[in-house]
Amino acid sequence: MVEENGQETQTGEEDGALEQLRAEIESLKDQRLRALAELENTRRRAERDRQEASQYAVTRFARDMLSIADNFSRALNACPLDLRETADPQVKAVIDGVEVTERQLLATLENYGVKPIETADAKFDPNLHQAIAEVPGEGKPAGTIVDVIQTGYKIGDRLLRPAMVTVARKEADAPADKNA
């Protein structure tokens, strides 16, 4: 249609096409924003995976090194303190060397995020500890760790090896005195 001043007016058909184009533009904007959000999520996920891979890459190696740390500990525990003090100077030097090597190994493991699980006066936690026996509590509440047989370790937030512990059992109630 042409108006008196020579300009064309939009017909209903043109209005419909214009609305359709506007709707398509909005749809494309929405798709673009969703694609950008997905790209950002993928980038974050990849970064998190990269960090975890670097943090936990030494897991298998660290687990193997723990048996060496255990052997150092067993070697030192095999020689009581009173025998160490009266030992020959050469034997003392060997024991001191084993102690230094054990400390150095544990410090190196800690540098890589491997840390011992704290068990001193702790309550038994099946996520961190493996109970190998229930023993008399000797005054400790039931479920409390009495003794650590093998130290447990974590790497970052993950369990590397559970601590093997003995746990205080519930003390049997004293029999009631019938004459009271």
List keywords for this structure.
alpha+beta, 180 residues, three-stranded mixed β-sheet, Nucleotide Exchange Factor Grpe, Chain A, domain 2
Q: What does this protein structure show overall?
A:
With 180 residues, the chain is α+β, with helices and mostly antiparallel strands. It folds into three domains: 15-57; 58-112; 115-172, Nucleotide Exchange Factor Grpe, Chain A, domain 2 (Roll). It is 52% helix and 16% strand. It contains four helices and six strands; from the N terminus they run ααααββββββ. It has helices at residues 12-56, 59-77, 81-86, 89-111; strands at 114-116, 129-135, 145-150, 153-155, 158-161, 163-168. Strands 1-4-5 form a three-stranded antiparallel sheet. Helix 2 packs antiparallel against helix 4 (89-111). The chain starts with 11 loop residues before the first helix and ends in a 12-residue tail after the last strand. 9% of the residues are buried. Residues 174-178 have low confidence and may be disordered.
Concise structural overview:
The protein has helices at residues 12-56, 59-77, 81-86, 89-111, and strands spanning 114-116, 129-135, 145-150, 153-155, 158-161, 163-168.
